[in-house]
Amino acid sequence: MDFIDGRPNDLIGLVIFSGQSFTQCPLTSDHAVLKNLLKDIKSGALKDGTAIGEGLATSVSSLKEAPTKSKVVVLITDGVNNSGSIAPQTAGEIALTFGVRVYSVGVGTRGMAPYPVQTLFGVQYQNMEVQIDEDLLTAVADATDGRYYRAVNNRRLESIFAEIDKLEKSKIEITEFKRYTEEYLPFALLAGLLFILELVLRYAWLRTLP
């Protein structure tokens, strides 16, 4: 939300993915709508899995025709690519082709973490190893002139968004043109005519008057 608020003039879209990808919000400048759709995201809405390649490819597809100079995908994942028909490397090549820069973010602590598992007794949490393919995410980001980050907690994720925001803010150069128009000529002509008229009146018409 803070990242969106910090870029009020950008076209921003939202793609969600797990075992498949879905465009939650197409590119828009209406950030109120975007944030409402962000709030509506629910875990389990899509097929289980981690289709990083499809998520990235869907994002690039939304961006490729965008009328903007800078095109960026912030790819956030907490797992290893294990689903989808498009490999992350292939999606990275597609991004490079269309001039899209990828900032990839691996989210999750290092080591073990509680993970919700559906059991006969309902959803229970079990400690499982956090697996993030950092080499893959780094390679995809590097290939598109982007960067890979690891967020092990909320504070680190916040600082990552702040850094990406700073990297993507470019200085706007404004060239100012000044056009000068000479306006003295009509006044000079008028003054000349008045001067001639004054001479005519002084030495001709007024001189003949008694």
Give the count of structural domains: 1
Q: What class, by secondary structure content?
A: alpha/beta
**SSE ordering:** HEEHHEHEEEHEHH
Spatial strand order of the main sheet: 3-4-7
Number of strands: 7
* Terminal Cα span: 92 Å
Biggest sheet character: 3 strands, parallel
How do the strands and helices of this protein lay out in sequence?
Layout: H1 2-5, E1 12-17, E2 21-28, H2 31-39, H3 52-63, E3 71-77, H4 88-97, E4 100-107, E5 112-119, E6 122-129, H5 134-143, E7 147-151, H6 154-167, H7 184-208
Parallel strand pairs: 3-4, 4-7
Antiparallel strand pairs: 1-2, 5-6
Helix pairs in contact: 3-4, 4-5
Task: Describe the protein in words.
The chain has 210 residues and is an alpha/beta fold. The protein has a single domain, classed as Rossmann fold (3-Layer(aba) Sandwich), CATH 3.40.50. The chain is built from seven helices and seven strands; from the N terminus they run αββααβαβββαβαα. The chain has a three-stranded parallel β-sheet, sandwiched between helices. Strands 1-2 form a two-stranded antiparallel sheet. The protein has a two-stranded antiparallel sheet with strand order 5-6. The longest helix is centred in the last third of the chain and has 25 residues. The chain is elongated and about 120 Å long. The protein starts with a helix and ends with a helix. About 3% of the residues have low confidence.
